[in-house]
Design goal:
alpha/beta, Rossmann fold, GMP Synthetase, Chain A, domain 3, 9-stranded mixed β-sheet, 5-stranded parallel β-sheet, 17 helices, 27 strands, 29% helix, AMP-bd_C_sf, AMP-bd_C, ATP binding
Length: 551
């Protein structure tokens, strides 16, 4: 056959940004975003995003520059997923639970040009900026106000901000033509993951990959038109697993909530007739353990990932009327690329067996080319549900690489595969199950915690000689850090467990603080002096799950 070449008519760059244009045309008069007593339609959301992009362009924001956001799940956070890339800039969402030091490191590494700051995070971001070197360029600040939040800033706080969020929108041109990518490989997103090192890694995603993961997620989860989606998953978690763009694609309604608890979630489900929501297993646990956990009036689809959910939690969640779907993904994939695709024959099994099967991560989604588990020589392991190997994958939604880190990028891109660092098994039926995590990552409430980072803080305590941190099972958070310490010889006043925990709370984000501290005369080591963490994990396992843990 004659070899035909692509033309401009059939090679427009893939991007999910056009989903908002279509939503405004098809679903213009229907609700797009609901927050407390405020409701926007898709026409209004489209206009607001266009005007904001116009105002940002007037400020000099250009293609390839990084614009950061630190905000909870409020309308501004949703709109910025379109408005920032509408200028050609790269969107960088920052975890609101991080401490000032980590945020400062991220902002400098990303070379952020502008930061949108939620009013509740003003003090945090100003502290982060105060840690910049004296002559380092500082990003400009835009304040996101919220009438539901009462803050009493110092007299100089607001002077640090260039403008307000709504002020920028009002200055924008509603006829602005948003900046389309020159190439679908152009960067669109920058997400930071602490991974297992002491420094955060900047994961770069392009327009093409984000388009693929968005459409893929809608198909795999079988999201219909006009869903009512409750934002229980933070949008700063891998951009809400791609659903900011996905809900626009299907003309759904985004129910935004600044801070939620079980009572709030159940209230919003009933008030807005919620059909879909996402969250880490800790969210499922929170809902099932709540005194407000009455059976739902109608089934609600809930997608969970971030840590292997205990089968018992899945069983309790579905008994309330939730329909649980389980998946697996990483910041490096921009969303879920493995899901526990359900087989009709499994419905005939007992409830406990169904929950056990659903706790497995599953099979690749349609948007992924391949997912495998390989051994030391890159060979596929036996499909016996026992033989361990590293999870590898390839597909269009895998990241472009780590920002300013060619070594880190090279270490995970090998032999044409992306090596995840996660350890798992492949079952006979082709379903993947994660068994462990390399380099001692702890997943607590869906957050990836680096044991190295926690240990580095513990070593700063004047009485600590050696420190090693491993995961301990937690009935509420799934896993929490468990610190094993040996003290320096000659310490007169030995610290208590409570004092060590309090020390950590003052020196790291609270969600990273160890919930268990064990003192030992000496930590177990190999012949070369390395601490044997597998021995400590066994100690932590023998302690049993931590009960009623709260951050």
């Amino acid at each position: 056959m004659e070899l035909l070449k692509p033309s401009p008519a059939n090679s427009s760059p893939l991007t999910p940004l056009g989903f908002l244009d279509r939503a405004a045309t098809v679903y213009g008069d229907t609700p797009s975003v609901v927050y407390n007593d405020t409701t926007f339609t898709w026409s209004q959301t489209h206009r607001r995003c266009i005007q904001l992009a116009s105002a940002l362009s007037s400020l000099g924001i250009r293609r390839g520059q990084v614009v950061s956001v630190i905000a909870p799940n409020i309308p501004a956070m949703y709109e910025l997923h379109f408005a920032v890339p509408f200028t050609g800039a790269v969107l960088n969402n920052i975890n609101t639970r991080l401490d000032a030091r980590t945020i400062s490191v991220i902002l400098r590494h990303a070379n952020s040009t502008l930061i949108f700051v939620d009013c509740a995070s003003c003090a945090l971001i100003l502290e982060a900026l105060s840690l910049f070197p004296p002559h380092a360029p500082r990003p400009r600040l835009i304040l996101i106000t919220d009438p539901t939040i009462i803050i009493e800033p110092s007299s100089s706080t607001f002077d640090s901000f260039l403008d307000t969020y709504e002020g920028l929108i009002n200055k924008g041109d509603p006829n602005f033509k948003w900046v389309r990518p020159n190439n679908e490989w152009d960067p669109m997103l920058l997400n930071y993951t602490s991974g297992t090192t002491s420094s955060p890694k900047g994961v770069v995603h392009c327009h093409r990959g984000t388009f693929i993961i968005t459409v893929d997620s809608l198909i795999d989860w079988e999201v219909p038109k006009n869903p009512i989606y409750l934002w229980t998953l933070p949008m700063f978690h891998a951009n809400g697993w791609s659903f900011p763009w996905g809900i626009a694609a299907v003309g759904g309604t985004n129910i935004c909530v600044r801070k939620f608890d079980a009572e709030t979630v159940f209230s919003l489900i009933n008030r807005h007739h919620v059909t879909h929501m996402c969250g880490a297993p800790v969210v499922l646990n929170m809902l099932t353990n709540s005194p407000d956990n009455k059976p739902l009036r109608k089934p609600v689809q809930i997608l969970t990932a971030g840590a292997p959910p205990p089968a018992a939690v899945l069983l309790r969640t579905e008994s309330l009327g939730f329909v649980v779907s389980h998946g697996y993904g990483l910041t490096e994939t921009g969303g879920l690329i493995v899901s526990c695709a359900w087989k009709a024959k499994w419905n005939r099994l007992p409830a406990t067996e169904r929950a056990r099967l659903k706790a497995r991560q599953g099979v690749r989604t349609l948007g992924m080319a391949e997912v495998d588990v390989v051994g030391p020589s890159s060979e596929s392991v036996k499909r016996d549900g026992v033989t361990l190997g590293e999870v590898v994958m390839k597909g269009g939604c895998v990241m472009l690489g780590y920002l300013k880190d060619p070594e880190g990028t090279g270490n995970c891109f090998k032999n044409g595969w992306f090596y995840t660092g996660d350890v798992g098994v492949m079952h006979e039926d082709g379903y993947l199950e994660i068994k462990d995590r390399s380099k001692d990552v702890i997943i607590s409430g869906g957050e990836n915690l680096s044991s190295v980072e926690v240990e580095s803080v513990l070593y700063g305590h004047p009485a600590v000689n050696e420190a090693a941190v491993v995961a301990r099972a937690d009935e509420y958070w799934g896993e929490t850090p468990c610190a094993f310490l040996s003290l320096k010889v000659g310490v007169k006043e030995k610290p208590t467990e409570k004092e060590i925990i309090e020390y950590c709370r003052k020196n790291m984000p609270h969600y990273m603080v160890p919930k268990t501290v064990v003192f030992k005369d000496e930590l177990p080591k190999t012949s070369t002096g390395k601490i044997q963490k597998f021995v400590l994990r066994q100690f932590a396992k023998e302690m049993g799950p931590l009960k009623q843990s709260r951050l």
